[in-house]
Amino acid sequence: MDPFSAEGELLNIHSAFHSGQYQNVLDFETSVLSPENQLPAQVLKLRAQIALGQYDEALAEPSIEEDSPDLSAVKALALQSSGKTDAALQLAQELAENYPDNNTVQVLGATVLQAQGLSEEALAVLAKHQGNLEAVSLIVQIQLQQNRTDLALKEVQAAKRWAQDSLLVNIAESWVGLRVGGEKYQSAFYVYEELASAPSTSAPLSIVGQAVAEIHLGRLPEAEAAITAALEKYPTDVELIANSIVLNVLAGKPSEELEARLQQVQPAHSLLADIQEKSEFFDASAAKFSAKASS
Amino acid sequence: MGTLIDRFEEHDGPVRGVDFHPTQPLFVSGGDDYKIKVWNYQTRRCLFTLNGHLDYVRTVFFHPELPWILSASDDQTIRIWNWQNRSLICTMTGHNHYVMCAQFHPTEDLIASASLDQSVRIWDISGLRKKHSAPTSISFEDQMARANQNQADMFGNTDAVVKFVLEGHDRGVNWVSFHPTLPLLVSAGDDRLVKLWRMSETKAWEVDTCRGHFQNASAALFHPHQDLILSVGEDKSIRAWDLNKRTSVQSFKRDLDRFWVIAAHPEMNLFAAGHDTGVMVFKLERERPASAIHQNQLFYITKEKHVKMYDFAKNVESPPMLSLRKLGSPWVPPRTLSYNPAERAILVTTPADNGTYELIHLPRDATGAVEPTDVKRGQATSAVFVARNRFAVFNPSSQVVDIKDLSNSTTKSIKPPAGTTDIYFGGTGCLLFITPTHVALFDIQQKKQLAELAVSGVKYVVWSNDGLYCALLSKHNVTIVTKTLEQVSTLHETIRIKSATWDDAGVLLYSTLNHVKYSLLNGDNGIIRTLDQTVYLVRVKGRSVYALDRNAQPRVLEIDPTEYRFKLALVKRNYDEMLQIIKTSSLVGQSIISYLQKKGYPEIALQFVQDPQTRFDLALECGNLEVANEMARQLDRPNFWTRLGTEALAHGNHQTVEMTYQKQRNFDKLSFLYLATGDQEKLSRMAKIAEHRGDFTSRFQNAIYRGDVEDRIQMFKEVDLYPLAYLTAKSHGLTEEAESILEACGLTEDQIGLPTLEQPLQVPNPIVPTFKSNWPVKAAGHSSFEKALLGEVGADEDIDVDGYDEQMDDEEEATLARETLDDDDEEPSGWDMGDDVTVEEDVDFVNVESAEAGAASSEADLWARNSPLAADHVAAGSFDTAMQLLNRQVGAVQFAPLKSRFLEIYKASKTYLPASAGLPPLVNYVRRTVDETDSRKMLPIIPRDLETVATVDLQEGYGAMRSNKLEDGVATFKRILHTLLVNTVSSEADVDQAKKLIATAREYILAMSIELERRTLSTDSPENLKRSLELSAYFTIPKLEVAHRQLALMAAMKLAFANKNYGSALSFANRMLANGGSAKLLEQAKKIKAQCERNPQDQIDIDFDPFAEFDICAASFTPIYNGSPSVSDPFTGAKYHPQYKGSVDRISEVTEIGAPASGLRLFVPSQF
């Protein structure tokens, strides 16, 4: 039986992880689980720790050095997150070669590869999956990052046929929906709203999703209400800050303070990097023009 | 409901028939004692008894209009009585067995009777009516006609004659009733049959028989407004029959009691059936229309089983959207409705067939009562949507809750707590299980119970609009709980609670049978209004309550929400709102005062009270001495002064205390008060008063307080207490005085017998002159509410927005301060001819090369391809092409000032959606074409649209002008120009508006720049003075708003006048007067005009011709007269002397003066 299915005992920890409630994952009582579920639970806990930015602590866990492909894959991810990208890449490639059928290796290995920009390699690793929903959602994300909305849509629709109920598929469908737009914006909004309002799944992840959907729907006041409330609760959540900047600019409000805050929390965020790059691009482009006469 | 009001025990033996009078407070009864009694149920007394029947009286009925009573008896007669003159007016004979029932026709002069002789008879009583109607002149013909009526019975009686005899029952007939409107009758007999009869003017015949009772049928009647027959029988059953098909529709069976009689309520949808041990009151169907609310829409099912939608925002009812005619059985209305906005689907349940549900998709548009297609159905008593694509159904027989997806297949099954009777939506992903004693909250995903609360008999659940609170309604209780099922408050009603709805502020409005009431979260409740008929509340909006009535018609009830809003504001301590309510509404009355007092807000209650005594009490309670003082003066009774004094003393407000003591003539206390506050002067006055009053004790006291020895001695002497006088004098060292006392009284020192002398009394010296003012005073108990009241008063003064006037007078200083224009001078950028920009002349599109292979191009790239507008290219991040476009369109060459605008647009173009942990967020592109999915038409959103610029930024610019913040103003208007330069609009009309805005911004920037330039000049040299005068004159040229032009004219006029340029000043004054406007400005203009007219000459000749048409060169600030050569800027249209051609526009700072340009594009028609 699939341990993550509706009847499985890992369901709650699994959905907590994927709805972004990482602290809940860490607090999860795993000692009551049956022996065969101990390992997946531990993997999830370590991943939650990494997601919370505690990769050094994760690397310091004794279990991560165990000789298990699952835990080694977690180690690769931890290495990647802590900036040791070369070691991470080597480990990931090694694991992908030796254990191509291991679910954790597929997902985490592909994550490491994708994070280093090796999208095609990542997709190749993931292509070997057998009914692994996490792999599906990762494939969708990579394809969206490649702007292949068409392929992502196919992937989601295929997955929906055998796992319509899954949280992961629902979320992945919303990712695609936010790309496709039109009526799909509203559907994506409903998914995130549902996640954000249910106590068992409410987290910055889902609130950001809800707010992003509202921005795309052009409902700025609602988006602002959601984000402002969430920012009070999670003042250092990077994506909350980033989207709050977008929202403030859209509403014609100053965003400098938020940008400074983002700079402080995550200087490498793509928004800041992007703006910096564009700012230089602007100067370079502007330099090509000048007036015929000096004034 | 269902409470016994009174018992009427005068009949001897069983009572078989009773009837209420339709209008009077009367009822009639007949029994086995052969008597008919008429009662008044208000005085609860029997008015009189009608004797005459010779056997049991079976039924008695009032006539609907005439003062008649109809009785049927075992003595085989039917009698009509007049209850006004209490006489028997007609006896109808003909039946030859017990007459079991006799009834008047509701409108015609007919009587129907049923007898154990197996017949039903119809009697015509029009003769009786004629005979007893008010005496009118009867024509001869009428008399003849009456005399010749040949249908007289065997006694020659023409009052009541048998019209028809209906035979068909094989046994005795127990009951007969008329149809309220149709010519139909229904009868019930011992042959266990219910028979339906029809009659015409001339005949009557049997229509059909309803078979089903398996014992004697006792009574039958027609449903007052539906096509149904109801019958009861000795088989212990109540049965409903379809009038048209004569088939059984519904039946109800009691275990032990045989039914004997049935009656219908004249107005309400209620029936009563009498059986062996009592009476059962029942309705045939639920009257509560099934409904569901989503945002501003109410979906409901009408009596015709049509699904309709009502829009609260527009107050309109949609045409029917669907017909649910086939749902359940025809006589059973649907029970509940649940709506899913994401799928636009409804779930309807009906109790028919042991409970079924149907899942139906609503049509996109309401086009009429169409039959639904693609209906999913199943067995359940409750069905609710729990998520976007899931619903829960509950089957009480199997005690299982199934979670189903929209294809109606079960995805999950839950075992609810034992005894669950109903399920409700419990917040996202949750369900509420209702058992007779508990409510449980259950998380569907985690499959666990989150909370449980002991509340018994919950029937309905109403969620607040924000989903934080929920009201659990049972028959007589409302329990308010949080979304986690923690009880917040509960309240009890003796009248049945029918429905509830939340207003947006978190007040619960609920309806009982006959009231609309409210409850705050803390349980405070009260009545809002009464109801003339029961309604089911669905929504509150402002002063309107929306409800569905029992005919499933939406109704809007007006309410006055003041009381509960006030209480809510009080609970939330929202003083501003309370203040608002107090000021704008007439919220008075004892109840609100006692409420406030009870809740500990006497200071607020004070605002509502007029009665001085209550005001005094409240003022004391909240320590408001001023009000208390005022009220005490009005009342002026010792009792109030005492209380005020005590309170004031506690506050340390001794001046009030002093006043109260004075009022009470409480001299001793007053003296002590002066002593305590150190008021020597008043103490001595007290001493005088005491002397005057001849009150020695008081005088002595005062003397002690003041340390006045002489006075004491004097006093002792006056009362002949010489030894004491001596002693006093002696002890204070007044030996001479002591001697004289001895002398005067003729005593010696020995005789007095002095005790040992101690130190004389020291009078305490005040350290602080406390008496001068109230100090120290207990911190005044001003609540924040009172502060709000006071603050409100203080803020009433007008705030002078117009800072310009004062500023004008300070003109000299302003000039001296040498404010400089910081952005007028730019670095020359070299004579770059722009050769490296190669642009094809006529093509507005700029092609963007596709992104790298493998991955497709992003949506941002599409934007640039889809649009020829610079703003869209900016949003796409394609700054270089955007610049090329701007260069071509408006000759933009210097982009630095646009940088923030570029980055602003770019920043707003995409959102960051966190996806898988460990990977960067997914980037999505924000569109202004929200509904578009065709990638060739997608376009980015551009922040700060035209409307924002026109409403926000422009006003800010005007504000800067008004308040003389010219540097800010220049910056604001430049920002407007930059924002408009890189923007999009949605129509040609908007393009025109944008162009107007650009022109306005240009004029203001020019005007402000001229004035700023003038302020940098010192006026000490004649050249500078001349230039200054010129600039001030030019300042009046740009086309500003009239109010602003007046300011410019004012400044120019004053400066010209001050420098004796009376001619110019006169022309400015004339222009001002022509413009009109503020009286204050015009007054000044008039004065100056009058002075200048005496000598309209300019002392300093300036380059300004008030009568010529000219533009101002935006670079040199000199006039360009009509006809002289000039160049203009392609973007702003600002004019320059020809020598400035090719340099950067001073107004926008972006574009090149005189550059070739195709014109700014903000709008592409095909995009919309």
Automatic annotation (TrEMBL), chain A:
Gene3D superfamilies: Tetratricopeptide repeat domain. Pfam families: Coatomer_E. GO terms for molecular function: structural molecule activity. One of its GO terms (biological process) is retrograde vesicle-mediated transport, Golgi to endoplasmic reticulum. The keyword tRNA-binding does not apply. It is a peripheral membrane protein. Keywords: Cytoplasm, Cytoplasmic vesicle, ER-Golgi transport, Golgi apparatus, Membrane, Protein transport, Transport. PANTHER family: COATOMER SUBUNIT EPSILON. This is Coatomer subunit epsilon.
From TrEMBL, chain B:
The coatomer is a cytosolic protein complex that binds to dilysine motifs and reversibly associates with Golgi non-clathrin-coated vesicles, which further mediate biosynthetic protein transport from the ER, via the Golgi up to the trans Golgi network. It is a peripheral membrane protein. One of its GO terms (molecular function) is structural molecule activity. Residues 304-549 form the COPA/B second beta-propeller domain. The keyword Membrane applies. CDD domains: Coatomer_WDAD_alpha, WD40. WD repeats lie at residues 8-49, 50-91, 92-133, 166-207, 210-251. GO terms for cellular component: COPI vesicle coat; Golgi membrane. It comes from Penicillium olsonii. GO terms for biological process: endoplasmic reticulum to Golgi vesicle-mediated transport; intra-Golgi vesicle-mediated transport; intracellular protein transport; retrograde vesicle-mediated transport, Golgi to endoplasmic reticulum. PROSITE patterns: WD_REPEATS_1, WD_REPEATS_2, WD_REPEATS_REGION. PANTHER family: COATOMER, COATOMER SUBUNIT ALPHA. This is Coatomer subunit alpha. It holds the Pfam family COPI_C. The keyword rRNA processing does not apply.
